[in-house]
Amino acid sequence: MTQVESKLQELRAQILSLGREYARLKQSAAAPEGAKAYVPASGKLLGEAELVNMLDASLDMHLTADRFNQAFEAKLAARVGVRYAMTTVSGSSANLLALTALTSPLLGERRLKAGDEVLAVAAGFPTTVNPIVQNGLIPVFMDVSLPSYNVAVSELTKAISPKTKAIFLAHTLGAMYDMDAVMELAAEHNLWVIEDMCDALGASWQSKNAGTFGHLATCSFYPAHHITTGEGGAVLTQDALLRRIVLSLRDWGRDCWCCPGHDNTCTRRFEWQLGRLPYGYDHKYTYSHVGYNLKLTDWQAAVGLAQIERLDEFLALRRQHAAFLLRELTDLSPWFILPEPDPRCESAWFGFLLSVRAEAPFTRNEVVSYLEAHGVGTRLLFAGNILRQPMFTNTAIPLRLAGDSTVRLSSELSEAELTQLPVTEFIMRNTFWVGVAQNLTEADLAQTSAVLHAFINEKCGGH
Ligand SMILES: Cc1ncc(COP(=O)(O)O)c(C=O)c1O
């Protein structure tokens, strides 16, 4: 090692050590234990390891994905139990990449073609559904069931038609859908399966991890999620060809698979003959897909690498918090449906879902307004019934409803057709969720419970 190199190493060690000291001091100066003035519905926990990794990545001055990204992808894949993890800029882009990958010409006859159908639900996040529409495919909307908030198994067989080629569903708020039923249907009809596990990192079904069932799975690392990189996401797969397609789509559509800043990984850079290009056209500038650029930076991956080490700690906290609320709120079950994941699933508890029972003498909006006014953050189950969202009513999107053989346009759905998903409709009007994330303490959850009890006392008296 030269003198300069050893000096650089010494300075790096000093900077990282100062970072550790800074993070520790900052943490000790944070608000004392006890209920917060506002209990947020979600949030992140960052500390020493995340700051040190960010500083370390800054000192590398590499900027684009490099050693931290490689390490993060490897740890994420190992933790979930898949061969490949490919980071991307968000969970939404992971969903776009996963579904678009299934349209690749490299899949031959199995590729999805415009007009093919993909099974979906309307009670969920929009960007689980959007890639279906963005790729010219037809979403087939199924109803969900309570209290799991996942697809109703009876809907699966009702929804299928000869045009159905894939199932693309999210595990709702950490609770997995019936993997036995979904995988059986997929095997029977030779369907692709994508697991949107953006809200379910760390969940399992009969001890098998979310993300290991489908051909592809997706994660989000937005701060509300189990681990964070700020913005960020990942596509997971066991399949080498799907991996190659996702990487191509993520990285401008290129055929070359060199990491940023590297050349000639294939050792045949000027020896390919592809498309109708002349022999030897630089592989670096050869494009086999109509792609995007959706790559993560090394800083983000540096945070993710520290966070994935803490996933089990975060999951334990989330499960503890959910168990606390289930205990504390049992006496409110005459008014609220409490969340109940399928007994075969160990939920990752993204949030704690509550539905106001139809016979309750108050509305969901009343309870949500009361909670917010009394310092408890709330969220809805995302789009509610997505078919009623302006994005669907403003635009003529071809779609089908489970049990109905006609493809209809979203902007022309009648009120009767919209109510063909009765549980989804109920969720849109009656459901909300409160926080159980790792940033909360038991005092916060006690506050959530106290405010809900106070609301019931006011509304229903004498409770
Ligand atoms: C189920 C689900 N899928 C996809 C996403 C999109 O993730 P991102 O915000 O990282 O784009 C979210 C966002 O929370 C989500 O809940």
Global outline: flat
SSE class? alpha/beta
Can you identify the CATH class of the domain at 60-308?
Alpha Beta
The small-molecule ligands in this entry are:
pyridoxal-5'-phosphate
Radius of gyration: 24 Å
Low-confidence stretches: none
Strand content: 5-15%
Describe the fold and architecture:
There is one protein chain. The protein has helices at 3-28, 48-60, 67-80, 91-101, 126-134, 153-159, 179-189, 240-250, 298-308, 311-329, 364-373, 390-393, 415-418, 422-430, 442-460; strands at residues 84-88, 117-121, 138-142, 144-145, 150-151, 164-170, 192-196, 204-205, 208-209, 216-220, 233-237, 336-337, 345-346, 352-356, 398-401, 408-409, 431-434. The protein contains 15 helices and 17 strands. It is flat, with a radius of gyration of 24 Å. The protein is an alpha/beta fold. Residues 90-92, 95, 125, 127-128, 170, 196, 198-199, 220, 222, 224, 233 line the site of pyridoxal-5'-phosphate.
Key features?
three-stranded antiparallel sheet; Aspartate Aminotransferase, domain 2; nine-stranded mixed sheet; binds pyridoxal-5'-phosphate; 15 helices; single chain
Condensed summary:
By secondary structure, the chain is an alpha/beta fold. The protein has helices spanning 3-28, 48-60, 67-80, 91-101, 126-134, 153-159, 179-189, 240-250, 298-308, 311-329, 364-373, 390-393, 415-418, 422-430, 442-460; strands at 84-88, 117-121, 138-142, 144-145, 150-151, 164-170, 192-196, 204-205, 208-209, 216-220, 233-237, 336-337, 345-346, 352-356, 398-401, 408-409, 431-434.
